[in-house]
Design brief:
The longest helix is centred in the first third of the chain and has 61 residues. The N and C termini lie far apart (70 Å). This protein is an all-alpha fold. Helix 3 crosses helix 6, helix 3 packs antiparallel against helix 8 and helix 8 runs antiparallel to helix 11. The protein is flat.
């Protein structure tokens, strides 16, 4: 009887020891998990903090020069006075023309790749080329635009050459975003449409594209926002150092906010005098990019809200 009690006692002690060990290991894992999530939270917060610090610096340095006159006046006295109206409008023209050239080509390519081309070596080669083009540095696009559009075709350094160059640079993003938007439309929509007698093009035109349009618009707007902030390609293809007037045609040179900011910050002979103008220009450029991104986010929000599947 005594031996039986001793065995039972030993078994209970063993179970308690095992439970304590399990609890200790669980507590250790829990601490590790908290540390890992803490690191992730710090990394995520540091990105937000960086944006806030950047905006704070720009607001502190540029808020003093932001006014109606700064937005609506042409630059004067070698850019030491006046506003940035010609740079703002040059950026707007450039962005709209870039969108005009790149959107039809990008959406058309995405429709071909996803709806028509199927699978094969040629299609894989096209997709690989698109991914590689997305990683090409912007200065290389600038050199390409200078050689092809400005010199070979004869458009010269102009608004047209710069917008065509930026359109080429935006194409990989628009194609990829459009293809993803087309993939998100359920296959059943296509099958039901064809079963009811519609042709393949009618199915794409009336059943697929309307549902994919918000995704396509979001990707296109984000790509244009990126293009609007590019400096290297437009330096080589059409942006001017100083122009106190707007371009009269597609073949004229133009001012643009990113290049204007670069000039004021690094190349101007009186950098100390024009520094507040540089901060103000950066603030306006950031505000335009944030506004464009906000439009894209709103379109995506509306799209998710109205989704039927």
């Amino acid at each position: 009887m005594a031996n039986l009690s001793k065995k039972k006692y030993s078994k209970n002690i063993s179970q308690i020891t095992h439970s304590l060990e399990t609890h200790r290991q669980f507590a250790k894992k829990n601490i590790k998990e908290k540390i890992n999530f803490g690191i992730f939270a710090f990394v995520a917060s540091s990105a937000v903090l960086t944006v806030l610090v950047l905006l704070g610096i720009l607001v502190k340095g540029g808020s003093g020069v932001i006014s109606i006159e700064f937005i609506t006046q042409m630059p004067m006295s070698q850019m030491t006075e006046g506003g940035i109206y010609s740079a703002i409008m040059g950026t707007v023209y450039l962005s709209l023309l870039t969108l005009l050239f790149s959107l039809p080509l990008g959406v058309g390519a995405a429709i071909y790749l996803h709806e028509w081309a199927g699978k094969g070596f040629f299609v894989r080669l096209i997709r690989l080329s698109i991914r590689n083009l997305a990683g090409v540095p912007s200065i290389v696009y600038g050199l390409f635009g200078l050689g092809i559009f400005a010199a070979t075709i004869g458009f010269g350094t102009s608004l047209l050459s710069a917008s065509l160059t930026l359109a080429l640079m935006s194409l990989p993003i628009i194609i990829t975003a459009s293809e993803e938007a087309l993939k998100a439309v359920p296959q059943e929509f296509r099958e039901a449409s064809i079963a009811l007698g519609a042709t393949r093009w009618e199915t794409i035109r009336y059943q697929v594209l309307p549902y994919a349009l918000p995704g396509i618009a979001t990707g296109s707007i984000l790509s244009i926002a990126r293009a609007a902030g590019e400096t290297a390609p437009i330096i080589l293809t059409g942006a001017a150092y100083f122009l106190p007037y707007l371009p009269g045609s597609l073949f004229d040179r133009f001012m643009a906010l990113p290049y204007h900011l670069y000039i004021l910050s690094t190349q101007h002979s009186q950098t100390a005098v024009v520094r507040p103008l540089a901060y103000g220009t950066a603030l306006v450029l950031i505000a335009i990019v944030l506004l464009v991104n906000a439009v894209a986010i709103y379109i995506r929000y509306r799209s998710r809200k109205n989704k039927l599947w």
